[in-house]
Amino acid sequence: MSNTQPASAEISRVGKFGLIGILNTLIDFAGYNVLSSVVGLSLVQSNVISTSVAMIFSFAANKKVVFKKNQGSLGKQAALFFVITAFGLYVIQTGTIKILTDVWLTPVALGLAAAHAMHITGHDQFLAKNGAKAIATVLSLSWNYLMYKKVVFS
Q1: Is there a single domain that holds both residue 77 and residue 63?
Q2: For residue 60, is pLDDT > 70?
Q3: Whole-angstrom Cα distance, residue 81 to residue 69?
Q4: What is the domain count for the chain?
Q5: What is the rounded CA–CA span in Å between residue 92 and residue 148?
Q6: Is 117 exposed, middle or buried (0-12, 13-18, 19+ CB in 10 A)?
Q7: Residues 38 and 95 in one domain
Q8: How far apart are CA 78 and CA 142, in angstroms?
Q9: 115-150 pLDDT tens trace
């Protein structure tokens, strides 16, 4: 029997990873807004709590649903997960945004040109900022998926 899984199993796993990511983002934004607007915490306090809760959810869901890893040291998996996720968020994502908005402007300029060709105008700053964030998110999610699969839950 081969160690490789059929492509359909990998596609299914990637789909589950995407769904967990969507749920994780909803938990983060909902918590952030409830804590800041309803509970009255500061934005920084709200963000620290909401991202922490979302990251814990993400760890548990990825462990049980996406990678189905029930063996191994929970502490080691959690530590690796949080370090890898932090690297993806704070180094890859932030670095990519910095590069695409301050250094290598061509990808964002091409995106703006495409938006203008579709008669989407008047929102260039919003589109540039979020276009860079979208590209950065794809890169950090790719990093997370590969590292969770190969390192955290291997």
Answers
A1: no
A2: yes
A3: 13
A4: 2
A5: 15
A6: exposed
A7: no
A8: 19
A9: 999 999 888 988 888 788 889 888 998 999 999 999
User: Do 82 and 153 have their domain in common?
Assistant: yes
pLDDT attached to residue 3: 53
Question: Mind giving me the DSSP string for 66-100?
Answer: IS---SS-HHHHHHHHHHHHHIIIIIIIHHHHHII
* Domain encompassing residue 35: 1-68
Quick one: 84 and 143 in the same domain?
A: yes
Q: Decide: 17 and 62 in contact? Cβ < 8 Å.
A: yes
Could you tell me if 108 and 96 lie in one domain? yes
CA distances from 122 to 47, 72, 115, 127 (A): 30, 53, 10, 9
Interatomic CA distance for residues 84 and 154, integer angstroms: 14
Round to whole Å and give the CA distance between 32 and 70.
31
Q: Of the candidates 45, 68, 91, which is a domain's last residue?
A: 68
Measure the CA angle with vertex 60, ends 37 and 79; round to 5°.
95
CB 77 within 8 A of CB 69: yes
